[in-house]
Amino acid sequence: MLAALALLAPLRASGDPATIGGRDADWWRAAMAAHEAELASSETAVAECEEREAPPAYDGVAGYVTPSGGGRRLRYVEIKRCEDERDAREAAQREIERFEDEARRAGVPPGWLR
Q1: Residue 16: pLDDT band by 50, 70, 90 thresholds?
Q2: Regarding predicted confidence, which is higher, 12 or 56?
Q3: Domain locations in the chain?
Q4: Do residues 103 and 112 make contact, with C-beta atoms less than 8 angstroms apart?
Q5: How far apart, in whole angstroms, are the C-alpha atoms of residue 34 and residue 113?
């Protein structure tokens, strides 16, 4: 118990018990809200991409051929699989997990992140 208090003492040494790591509850809450908004945005981007670019009917299909140049030529169009959007969503999720871990290590009460 004393070891835990010794670890938290430098974080609360700012003299203001309403701050942790030099940041107040409003800052922690706003930072978490920004991370959650980024995740929601990336989830929306994935859903829109999957609906627009890679609908279920195209599962197992790499691309399709379409006429171009007045119908005299054929052009191959590769189907976008939305990997960039999925990668962005995963990065946003990892960032939330990293931020929550940082807050936990700093001793931020869970209510400050809600």
Answers
A1: low
A2: 56
A3: 19-113
A4: yes
A5: 11
| Cβ neighbours around 70 below 10 Å, total | 6
What is the spatial distance between Cα 26 and Cα 103, in angstroms, rounded to a whole number? 13
Residue entry with tokens 């691309």: 63
Calpha distance 38→89 (Å, rounded): 8
d(CA 47, CA 56): 12
| Phi, psi of 62, rounded to the nearest 5 degrees | -80, -30
| β-bridge mates for residue 23, sequence order | 20
| Contact between residue 54 and residue 80 where contact means Cβ atoms under 8 Å apart | yes
pLDDT digits (tens, 9 = 90+) for 39-83: 999 999 999 988 887 666 667 777 777 888 776 788 887 777 788
